[in-house]
């Protein structure tokens, strides 16, 4: 059995360049029953920017727990989540 792949388009959510700051949304985190997402500071930013509040993103971590219900993609206001 292959794991679900969850892709989050960060041009639409997060990394400061996206259309939305994930700290102001978080709908995917709230609706996912197995809670596979985390919201965290972007890891590869320059040290001077590490605590810049603009640099946040959402990552799907526990993919083996995903039930493929599709609720996260449906609820995302940015249509940033793709499930394959
Ligand atoms: S498809 Fe369902 S279980 Fe999987 S990440 Fe989205 S909300 Fe969670
Ligand atoms: S629901 Fe979409 S826009 Fe909102 S935090 Fe999740 S990925 Fe970002």
Primary descriptors:
single chain, globular, alpha+beta, Alpha-Beta Plaits, 12% helix, binds iron/sulfur cluster, 4 strands, two-stranded antiparallel sheet, 84 residues
Layout of secondary structure:
Elements: E1 6-8, H1 27-31, E2 37-41, E3 56-60, H2 71-75, E4 81-83
Bound molecules: iron/sulfur cluster (2 copies).
Describe the structure.
This protein is α+β, with helices and mostly antiparallel strands and 84 residues long. It has a single domain (6-83), classed as Alpha-Beta Plaits, CATH 3.30.70. Helix content is 12%, strand content 19%. The strands form two sheets. Strands 1-4 form a two-stranded antiparallel sheet. The structure holds iron/sulfur cluster (2 copies).
Quick overview of this protein structure:
Helix content is 12%, strand content 19%. It has 84 residues and is α+β, with helices and mostly antiparallel strands.
